[in-house]
Here is the input.
Amino acid sequence: MSSTPVRSEAMPSGRPLGARLERVYETLLRRNPGEEEFLRAVREVLEVVEPVVERRPEYVEAGLLERICEPERQIIFRVPWSDDRGEVHVNRGYRVEFSSALGPYKGGLRFDASVNASIVKFLAFEQVFKNALTGMPIGGGKGGSDFDPKGRSDAEVMRFCQSFMTELHRHIGDRTDVPAGDIGVGQRELGYLFGQYKRLTNRYESGVLTGKGISWGGAQVRREATGYGCAYFVEEMLRTRGTSLAGREVVVSGSGNVAIYAVEKVAQLGGKVVACSDSEGVVHDPAGIDVELLKQVKEVERARLTAYAERRGPTATHRPGGDIWAIPCTVALPCATQNELDGKDAAKLVRSGVVAVAEGANMPCTAAAVQTFQEADVAFAPGKAANAGGVATSALEMQQNASRDSWTFEYTEERLVEIMREIHAACHDTAAAYGAPGNYVLGANIAGLTRVADAMLALGLV
Here is the structure.
């Protein structure tokens, strides 16, 4: 019999589960030893769905809780490639196809040294409920590799992507599994991946990948969608409390795709982002982050934030290794990576007067941080709701590819706004219906789970 893993802040809160849910979780502990990220993601869901089990006994009778926590398919493969000096490297590739109850598997590919089976499985599990919340006909999956594209030449990245797709192409398709980008996978990588897919299959199946370039099947707003959607979700949360982003000072962690466009949309909605970060430190700019300069530094030059601070002038300071959560704000958007904001960070934010926090990244707040926010009555939005704008727009891209159509930026953003408002309403109304008004964690998990579970019931024991 395996023992429970050592608990850390990244692990679940440990709130007691009912007997049936505890048995489900104990089985997962035995089957997935050491997979902290995945176990935390599952436990977070199990801790809030007890009321669903009581209201919907058919879920228990059909074994849905056990089935919904087990991936339909997990693929692990070798990725050999050679660098510019001819040296051979071997990385590991992953694709976890978690649930196809609502549609083809859908979720990004992450290229980063931190990628392992637990992280990919946790991301895929989260993706199932995130995708369900969008109301779009897409299931959930995730993939990637422990390959790190940073510092690699275009030729090296191309060779890696071609080797990766040589295996992955056997498992994907526009009606089977549709990957997209994630950390370390932008339009450069997606271009190389799609080129190899087209070469291997002899088909221009543009709907097999999303996040593509506009000139070869991509959708307007896809690059901006996750950050924009996060800002729109915060605006909806604040609206239920009789306020808005206008005039608020905001802190956004990270400076990648999600963070950049969260900064842009917050500014457009009247807020002022005063800080962002990268792996080397924090930029504090009390005058407000200059988003055009930020785009130039991070997207065009792929430079560090020190370059932003140097060019911005006296209004901005760079703090090497600084603590972004120590900067006073009333809205915080963690948009960097998982477990970046812990209980101590949350306490600092609460003391500085934060009223709303939304996860732009996937599970960036530890269980202790979430509990701190909820106890302080801070409006807190989990990533499966707040950052669902990216995958929602990917589904819109799939629609355009299927119909050989192309939509304007304005029309696509209108669809994004509508979807984010519907996601907020589903989370808000579900929480209220289950006696926990304002608890977006409970609302998001129950709303997502019931949509997936109802589809699974309809499909039978498969």
About this structure: Residues 1-11 have pLDDT under 50 and may be disordered. The longest helix spans residues 409-433.
